[in-house]
Structure prediction request, 519 residues.
Amino acid sequence: MNCKTVEDKLTFYLYDELEAGERAAVAAHLEACAACAAAARELERMRAVLDQRPRREPSPELLVRSREALDEALDREAESWRALVRSWFIVPPGVSALRATAALTILVLGFSLGWTLRTRVPAAATGNGSGQAPWVGSDLSNLRISGVSQVAPDPQTRAVRITLDAQRRVVLEGSFDDPRIRQVLLYAMKNYDNPGIRRDTLEVLGQSGNNPTVREALLYALRRDPNPGVRLEAAEALQALDWGPDVRQALLDVLREDQNAGVRVAAVNVLVEHADENVLPVLEQMAAGDPDTYVRLTCARALRERAREDF
Amino acid sequence: MEGCLELIHRVPGATPQLDALEERTLIRQAQRGDRAAFEQLVRLHEGGVLRLALQMVRSEEEAKDIYQEAFLKIYRSLGRFRFESRFSTWMYRVVMNVCLDHLRRAGTRREVQAPESEPGQAEFFHTLPEERPALNPERALQGREVQRRIQAALTRLSPRERLVFELKHYQGMKLRAIGDYCGTSEQTAKNCLFRATQKLRLELKEIA
Prediction:
């Protein structure tokens, strides 16, 4: 078996679609030929990349919605025939759809909605307080001690008074729009080390409407956050805000200067929705000169689509 | 279609598989207009159909449309099923055609969008740092970037290449079965798989 034949059969070899004899011949060739073995490894790497695509499982809600849609379509189907027959033979109308499916849909969707909104109750509440009341007999496991400043024993009563600095976990629950909640989120976004928390914070802030402080915080994150995942989240969150020169300029700066190609692509995706005489030249410039192929392609595609829409 | 059928039991509310005789009886009843029997047949196969549809299209809404259109066509043409092949083969042929139609229509619409975000993302107040020390947005970003490129590469395949590749790579079906289910020959399925892998190889070269 020569290299050309093996090249043609490589796909089927890796997908286990060759007869035993052919398979053995290809395997023997790969043992002996470095070039074909390299080609096989390249194809295997491609398969491994494609395996990273998640398998999407139908959710119960989708299943119920699909059943309901089919049920309604089947009802219409039956109804159209009945109508035809009725017009000829005057047959009384039949029984209508299965209502149980609709009821189940409402139940499932209602449950999902309730589950989704369970932490978004409008009233803000603080638990466990953050004051400096002395700790007396509460659960020590709930405290993280950062320092002890005084230990004062009383040998007569065998009591001891310990003064310490401790961090206590506080749970805040409240509406996205609650100023106290927003204040904590803004603080976390600019000052907290954990980029995962900053990203989650942005996600919440992004749904907080067009508040000027939130807007400023999103723009700050887009330009300055050290983590590209957070910057990308900020770019996407900006889509929900009113468009303005400040947002446009920040996105254009990111497209031109951000080191991360994924963030630049996210900026293109937002900018193309508002492509005007300020944006188009930059998209054209990046379509020609961005160091990343995918960014160039995305810019070029955005420009093509824009031209098609204008046409 | 073992690849698809074996997954049915993972769908909530799915009906367990029947033996051949029970299935034949159900088909006969459905052919005589028994709506409940038809619904039972739907329950048997809906998981595989919906899962395939979700893989082929971007949104749940489109997947729902494929489900509805496919089963409606099956309902309309059930009377023509003559038990000359397995019911699942006959049924999936209809499903494949509906999928191909959707992909062709989608090809004329705007392409290359990021895949929809997956459900189940954590909420802020349940994500205090100690509980998620390993969360790494940069890695998540890289993952999303890879997903985006895979999705873009897949949408550049022709509808038939896409369908064959999906069934081979993601559902693990044999090319002969794919040919049967697509109403074409094994050789045609083979050619589609070859072309699809060549295109994907070029598209994904940078990240592979």
